[in-house]
Amino acid sequence: DWTPNAFVEETVEDLKVKLGNDKVVLGLSGGVDSSVAAMLLHKAIGKNLYCIFVNNGLLRKNEFTDVLKQYEGMGLNVKGVDASARFLDALAGKSDPEEKRKTIGRVFIEVFDDEANEIKDVKWLAQGTIYPDVIESVSATGGPSATIKSHHNVGGLPDFMKLKVVEPLKALFKDEVRRVGASMDMDAQLLGRHPFPGPGLAIRILGDLTREKVRILQEVDAVFIDNLRSWGLYDKVWQAGAILLPVNSVGVMGDERTYEKCVALRAVESTDGMTADWVNLPYEFLQKTSNEIINKVKGVNRVVYDISSKPPATIEWE
Ligand code: XMP
């Protein structure tokens, strides 16, 4: 007897009563959960919802501008903060996966705290937490909420963590969140987006990061994802992405030997990210995509496809 329409109606009423005329801050990630949470709050309190969307420089190609535009089109009161340089500078020289994650978490908290402090008299922190996040420690949904949670007990609390917390999706599963979004007429492409980790491309560039490596991986990833969409495969895959390997391999271009980067493509089927199978993508798709990557993306001369399942492999390589 649960229906998305009734959920929206009840939740919006509850939020109105609970929040009254208070100001609320929410970190948007571009993902489904934070976007649907924002839309519910927007319906309840309008301009008193202050959304912050941080570019950590590790998003997909054009993602920051595209998604920001989409949020603005939805009527959200959203501020895009381009903190790419701050993140990439902090990551320079770091190659350990956990150190990279911690650095990104720390810088995110600093940036978000600065922005939240600029909103006068803010009383609440809204989060897109869903039921599985409550019971699991690692969020497959990524984004600000996952980052915040894993850094709870580091040093003194940032100011925004002293705010009261409101989590309108806390009792829902992912498919219910999508249905709630659809019942509010949210864009199907936004609701159908693959999960993307909070640390973004940083954990798909094995070893240390440079701006050039981020650029290469963004280009490779864009070819792969665009092709999945144009072949009608995107919605058949639970998560997909490219990994930049820390090795060069020999190739040949014309009469010249090349010595360039190798990338791996990964596409998995899963229900919750806890277990996963690699997807049997058509050979022709892989062939076309590999050719296109090598022809278009300067610095890459080899593409491999990851055929490992979880367990014992993980979805990400770091
Ligand atoms: P693994 O690699 O553990 O990934 O099989 C399972 C799911 O979790 C995502 N993931 C992360 N999400 N912060 C996040 O927000 C992280 O540090 C992180 N590491 C992995 C991964 O993309 C997959 O969906």
Automatic annotation (TrEMBL):
Pathway: Purine metabolism; GMP biosynthesis; GMP from XMP (L-Gln route): step 1/1
UniProt KW Nucleotide-binding keyword: yes
Keywords, ordered alphabetically: ATP-binding, Glutamine amidotransferase, GMP biosynthesis, Ligase, Nucleotide-binding, Purine biosynthesis
EC category: ligase
Domain GMPS ATP-PPase, chain residue ranges per copy: 2-193
EC number: 6.3.5.2
Reactions accelerated catalytically: XMP + L-glutamine + ATP + H2O = GMP + L-glutamate + AMP + diphosphate + 2 H(+)
Key word Nucleotide-binding present: yes
Binding positions (ATP): S29, G30, G31, V32, D33, S34, S35
GO molecular function, one term: GMP synthase (glutamine-hydrolyzing) activity
Described function: Catalyzes the synthesis of GMP from XMP.
Quaternary organization: Homodimer.
The protein's name in its UniProt record: GMP synthase [glutamine-hydrolyzing]
Organism listed in the record: Winogradskyella litorisediminis
Gene name as annotated: guaA
